[in-house]
Amino acid sequence: MAATDLERFSNAEPEPRSLSLGGHVGFDSLPDQLVSKSVTQGFSFNILCVGETGIGKSTLMNTLFNTTFETEEASHHEECVRLWPQTYDLQESNVQLKLTIVDAVGFGDQINKDESYRPIVDYIDAQFENYLQEELKIRRSLFDYHDTRIHVCLYFITPTGHSLKSLDLVTMKKLDSKVNIIPIIAKADTISKSELHKFKIKIMGELVSNGVQIYQFPTDDEAVAEINAVMNAHLPFAVVGSTEEVKVGNKLVRARQYPWGVVQVENENHCDFVKLREMLIRVNMEDLREQTHSRHYELYRRCKLEEMGFQDSDGDSQPFSLQETYEAKRKEFLSELQRKEEEMRQMFVHKVKETELELKEKERELHEKFEHLKRVHQEEKRKVEEKRRELEEETNAFNRRKAAVEALQSQALPATSQQPLRKDKDKKKGSGWSSIYSVTIP
Amino acid sequence: MDPLRQSPSPSSSRASSPRTLPCEMLGYVGIEAVLDQLKIKAMKMGFEFNIMVVGQSGLGKSTMVNTLFKSKMWKSTMPGLGVPTPQTLQLQSVTHVIEESGVKLKLTVTDTPGFGDQINNDKCWDPILGYINEQYEQYLQEEILITRQRHIPDTRVHCCVYFVPPTGHCLRPLDIEFLQRLCRTVNVVPVIARADSLTIEEREAFRHRIQENLKTHGIEVYPQKCFDEDINDKILNSKIRERIPFAVVGADREHIVNGRCVLGRKTKWGIIEVENMAHCEFPLLRDLLIRSHLQDLKDITHNVHYENYRIFRLNESHVLPRGPGWVNLAPAPASVPAPAGPQATPGPPKVGWWAKDNSDEEC
């Protein structure tokens, strides 16, 4: 087989030469080809909403996506935090979006909130696990896979005006390495502007001092760097959600009507809703998805694989192939299975032997009994035989005597007729003994 | 999902999750801005494309590449008189970064000088198959690392352009053997090289005969019929399929024709314009490869050929003994054409391979 000689003229790494084109080749349509492929494929976006019951999560979702998602009000009596995902198909012009909104139901309602964060973390990990499983399959279909990994977590902060609650801090700390967190101040119409400003500074300070890594909008691409940098300074967004429309001026806008005024949702002076929508959907949706895949998912994958015992290289820095370790584990597993099988077989054989012994015992016993019975039976038979012989002898004796007596009688009375003899015989039969007695006794 | 018709390029044929509810939006939300975000990201990252040209010497492969990308990828090789033909097939790769309207493309062209040039051409396709599989292997190794790179460099061959010599009769046994083996591992686009030696009628007859040959031997060239997604694709692709193999002429010199400057070959009896549809079908080839189907080529390579290779590799790992030749590709080319090989790459290309029957096939 001919060897493959591969010569690379230019240095493939680090940088290949650039070449100038003599005319229009036409590959500037590449981004369009890529986009049209993605459009046919559709997009999926998964949002996790974490916040206390009644803080306005569902309303905000309705406002964000300008639609009514069918949800009912959650009760306050949940025993533990439960995650409730709902998937919706949205379409705008030619873009199809599979939106999944996961609600942390019952968050903050329990008396003991120690384990509140655990179901959330478990859910996020489960989604990563599903993706990892699909990726590790031999026959996989990644392009068709419905991506359920959480792309962004909107954390709703109660507008106390003072600082973050410890529950918030703990939960956010647990989630920051698994998902992109965007903190939001909910029901922002209950705080005045000055209080809001102080509140925001306090929150960001607390987050930084506790080392919580929230999602920073990317500033490395010139197109969006500027707007993202500005928005980064406005975190956390103070939002108001509303699906009701109120007439302001001569337009119908989404707003909340109070006796003292109207809070307009889309008015930048009133709340940061527009900023949130810009950042979340219009500018950074793709980046959120990419961060989830390349940072959070890779981290999870690395930890999981290392946990399972795989390595990239061992102490002698010889690259271990994932395959090799996989193979080793598989062999181990197979040998384990074999061992167990052997064990079970041994046990089976042992049991069989035991039962066999028992059965043999019983058989022997039965045999003995049988013999014994046979002997007894023989004995009885013999006894009966003996008795019968005795009886026979006695009968014979009796018959002889009878014959003797008859002979005597027939000698003594020859003249007597037959009939009386017969009668006598009859009589004798009946009273044989008496006649014998009468003869013998002179 | 219907296991028999599983299209590889991303399509909207996913099953909806059980509780997917369609929702009407009452106003503009801005979801479609995600397309712009995608574009920006793609432009920033740049694109990669790897093309391989296969054919005997003197068929104009290097010239064709230069014409396709309108630049001097490499000097057209003319075998010198004193240079002996290489004994073994040597693959040469050239990588260039070309930019057009802000779109950066890292193009790698792999040439195969010496293909089919020897007297005994038995198994001359092995180095090529080996090279292709090696690229898949590299990608696979990168993909299964624990800490892997954000963007795995893609050196897999996306498209293989096979140059058929213009005999005018039919495909030669070498062509058939090679195409049979290759169409299972990579997207193959056959072209009739040096088409200026055939008249239009001869061209049509030749093309017809080649199509018959391809059908008889069960060779599926790009665009493959089983990957057509929807009716638009089918229509578009059937038009292309009617014209495959394209009759092309390559030229990298410019001449003046009717006041215009065109690429062409000048002969005593006229100038053959490369970009003139009446003269040759080069524009069709260029449009197919670059302007309309480039992304599709990459997608099919990634979703079908690479996945097939991966299945084959992961399945065989417990069949072959592990040894120092872990990345040894020697068995791979041997088992690709053999019908008795592992189930992932069966002999007849259609059944079981494109169809991807799952667990019944692998034991």
From TrEMBL, chain A:
Function: Filament-forming cytoskeletal GTPase.
Pfam families in alphabetical order: Septin
PROSITE patterns in UniProt: G_SEPTIN
Septin-type G domain residues: 41-307
Subunit comment: Septins polymerize into heterooligomeric protein complexes that form filaments.
Organism: Lipotes vexillifer (Yangtze river dolphin)
Domain of life, per lineage: Eukaryota
Keyword field: Cell projection, Cytoplasm, Cytoskeleton, GTP-binding, Nucleotide-binding
GO cellular component: cell projection; cytoskeleton
Subcellular location: Cell projection; Cytoplasm, Cytoskeleton
UniProt-listed InterPro entries: G_SEPTIN_dom, P-loop_NTPase, Septin
Main location: other
Coiled coil: none
Feature: compositional bias, Polar residues: 408-420, 432-442
Record's compositionally biased regions (Basic and acidic residues): 1-16, 376-391
PANTHER family membership: SEPTIN
Region of interest called Disordered, as start-end residue ranges on this chain: 1-22, 376-442
Gene Ontology MF terms: GTP binding
Protein name: Septin
Family: Belongs to the TRAFAC class TrmE-Era-EngA-EngB-Septin-like GTPase superfamily. Septin GTPase family.
From TrEMBL, chain B:
Name of the gene: SEPT12
GO terms, molecular function: GTP binding
Xref: PANTHER family: SEPTIN
PROSITE patterns assigned: G_SEPTIN
UniProt GO BP: cell division
Family to which the UniProt record says this protein belongs: Belongs to the TRAFAC class TrmE-Era-EngA-EngB-Septin-like GTPase superfamily. Septin GTPase family.
Compositional bias annotation for Pro residues: 336-349
Official protein name in the record: Septin
Subunit structure: Septins polymerize into heterooligomeric protein complexes that form filaments.
Subcellular location(s) per record: Cytoplasm, Cytoskeleton
Segment forming the signal sequence: none
Alphabetical UniProt keywords: Cell cycle, Cell division, Cytoplasm, Cytoskeleton, GTP-binding, Nucleotide-binding
Gene Ontology CC terms: cytoskeleton
Organism: Lipotes vexillifer
Biological role stated in the UniProt entry: Filament-forming cytoskeletal GTPase.
Species lineage: Eukaryota, Metazoa, Chordata, Craniata, Vertebrata
